[in-house]
Amino acid sequence: MDRWDGNWLNVVGHCGGDGASVWSTGAILDTLALSRFRDDLDRIYRTLAEAVLESHEPKIKVHIKSSDKAGHLRIRVELTPDHLLQGHWFEFEADQTYLPPLIDQSDTILKTFPVRGIENRR
């Protein structure tokens, strides 16, 4: 229940593309990182900046950045079940219309599993 151990989420991460599918499970993401990512997503939706999901666990990272003024996004997902022996990344393109549902999903997760041990902003 404290701010260190109480903020970890037990998740199943999956990313796939043509000919590849990578899964990683366990406590690989914390609510603090998710909260920062949610705020970044809101900022990129409004200003076409960038958003990064990066936890203290090296098994998952997502980087989203604007590729032009028209709202196109470049997404890089890094996911691995074993960060010491493997590295996997995928790149995707999307547009900013995908961001509001992702922001809403992040809000739902953070309402269900609020950040512990620091003043909750939501």
In short:
The protein has helices at residues 31-47, 99-112; strands at 8-17, 20-30, 50-54, 60-66, 72-79, 89-95.
User: Structural class, from helix and strand content?
Assistant: alpha+beta
Please, how many domains? 1
- The count of β-strands is 6
Question: Gyration radius, to the nearest Å?
Answer: 15 Å
Largest sheet: 4 strands, antiparallel
Proportion in β-strands: 35-45%
Roughly how many Å apart are the termini?
Answer: 18 Å
* Mean pLDDT level: 93
The helix content, as a percent range, equals 25-40%
Number of helices: 2
Describe the strand arrangement of the main beta sheet, using strand numbers.
3-4-5-6
Order of helices and strands: EEHEEEEH
Shape: flat
Low confidence ranges:
none
Describe this structure in words.
- The chain is an alpha+beta fold.
- It is about 25% helix and about 40% strand.
- It has one domain (about 10-110).
- The strands form two sheets. A four-stranded antiparallel sheet has the order 3-4-5-6. A two-stranded antiparallel sheet has the order 1-2.
- The mean pLDDT is about 95.
